[in-house]
Amino acid sequence: MTHMHIPDGILPVGLWLFGLIVMVLAVGFSLFQLRGMDMVRKIPLLGALSAAMLVAMSLEILPIFYHINLSVVAGILLGPALGFLAAFIANLILAFMGHGGITVIGLNTLLLGSEAVLGHTLFHLFKRLPVFWRSATATVLTLFMTTMALIGIVAVSHIDPELLSHGAEHGHTGQVSVRTFAIMVVSLGVIGWTIEAAITGAVVRFISQVKPDLLDHALHRDKEGKQPRGNMP
Amino acid sequence: MIDVARIDHWAASGSGPFHRASTPAKLLFLLFVVASAVITRNPYSLMAGYGLLLAVAAASRLPWFRVMGLSWYAALFAILYAISFRGGGWLAALFIVKAITPSFAMLMLIVSTPYPKIFSLFSALLPEILAAGLFMTYRTLFILLDMMDNFASAIRLRGGFSPGSLYKNSANISKGIGMLLVRAVERASRLYAVMVVRGYSGSMAEKGTVRFQREDWLPLGTGMAVLMLVLIWK
User: Which residues does chain B have within 8 Å of residue A40's beta carbon, measured at their own beta carbons?
Assistant: First the structure.
């Protein structure tokens, strides 16, 4: 889920190790998908959009003090492979600001990166809708799915008998309630999804009006001018 | 709000003992604190560790109070997670202190180490596109923050911000972000052209070397002290 960065020390070791392994595989796969592209040109583009994601995260929308993250916009503009790498870079820098943990960088990147990948995929599935609604719908569905993924992570992480038994020694039963967590996260998330969707829709519509070539991935062609597979619209 | 510019200023302008320590030593310090947070099952020992970090940060002339405030951001997820466990105050305290202690250590590292030093170590481990992407993100970030500040000032002067009007604020912010993205891409392309003229050929990061020095006793000693505290006080 957007804006919910898992900190260090909370999740079971096996779970964050699994996240790190899957993240390394996903980053490796993204790099493999990008092998035919002109890397020297992509590095500045990747940096610019990762920076734009970080800047967007530093903005607050009054009066609810909500942060947006533009991961879906990054996915739409960069494509799934480069979008995933942008999510990784943004997450790494965020982790270095204490905004999400180091051990859980795998899980956090998978969540943010899947927003970029899903956002891009869904955006290209809803081709019949106007640009605003296309991106807004893609954003809501993406954030819903990644929130479910977060709840899934929490559900899996509750299987930590050692922690629960240690809590019981101190007189606490540690009853599992993923439902409570899900209700809290979804009820907070719905407001966030709506705002993020409205902003994503407006941003993508603005870009389609003033610089439509960005949506055609014109900047992502390789040296021979071919469209790489990892960024096909 | 993440104040990247302020963090960068603290990292570049400080001269305390933590600033003088080498980057690998501070990364090891972070590793010790993260390991402590991962292995502990007792909130009190980690609370003591957090207190020790606060004391070291204050003694090292780091902006400890601001860093403490930033470290509490990590508590948000921990609180929701603790509520889902229904484990009472003890478990909630454990989760919160497990979240904020590594976050504080991480912030101690970045407010005392300029980003290029950290990234140069990464460049030895990461593929070229990621290492260089990190550098490029860092370079572009400050340009964009400056542009966003100008945009915010302009929109305030023209009455574009209305506290309480979510629709109007969102619409104006969206246009600002759209413009920011377009300009970010233009800047990136221009930056690329400049870099090519200056001889850029796909490699830009100076590879970091692991070398320890005398001043490293502070981060290494602090990290080990936190780890020992957690191991002894179970």
Answer: 192, 196, 200-202
Cα A92 from Cα B126, distance rounded (Å): 12
Q: pLDDT-derived band of residue A85, with 50, 70 and 90 as boundaries? A: very high
Please check whether residue A19 is in contact with residue A106, taking contact to mean a CB–CB distance below 8 angstroms.
yes
Label residue A198 by pLDDT band (50, 70, 90). Answer: confident
CB contact under 8 A, A96 and B201: no
Chain A residues in contact with B170 by the CB 8 A cut-off are 61, 195, 198-199, 202
Give pLDDT, residue A65: 55
Closest among B141, B143, B70 to B102, alpha carbons compared: B70
At residue B208, the pLDDT reads: 58
Instruction: Name the 3-class secondary structure at B87.
Output: coil
Distance in angstroms (rounded) separating the CA atoms of residues A209 and A196? 20
Shortest CA distance from A88: residue in chain B: B130
* Per-residue tokens: B54: 């606060």
- Amino acid code (one letter) for B75: A
Would the pLDDT of A41 be above 80? no
Label residues A160-194 b or e (16+ Cβ within 10 Å = b): beebbebbeebebebebebeebbeebeeebeebbb
Interface test with B, best of A25, A37, A40 (most B CBs within 10 A): A40
Residues B103-132 pLDDT 10s:
899 999 989 988 778 877 777 778 878 887
Identify residue A43 by its one-letter amino acid code: I
CA quadruple A31, A32, A34, A36: dihedral sign: positive
CA distance linking residue A130 with residue A47, whole number of Å: 29
Q: Using CB atoms, pick whichever of A5, A97, A178 lies closest to residue B110.
A: A97
Q: What is the pLDDT of residues B66-85, one digit of tens each?
A: 888 888 877 877 787 777 76
Q: How confident is the model at residue A60 (pLDDT cuts 50, 70, 90)?
A: low
Residues of chain B with pLDDT under 50: 1, 205
What is the Cα–Cα distance from B219 to B88, expressed in whole angstroms?
34
Q: Nearest-CA neighbor of B60 among B192, B222, B225, B202?
A: B222
Interface of A with B in 68-87 (CB under 8 A): 68, 70, 73, 77, 85-86
Bridge partner list, A60: A67
Residues of B within 8 A of A86 (CB-CB) are: 133
Q: How far is B213 from chain A (nearest CA, A)?
A: 23
Q: Name residue, tokens 């991962």.
A: B38
Q: Is the peptide bond before A63 cis (omega within 30 degrees of 0)?
A: yes
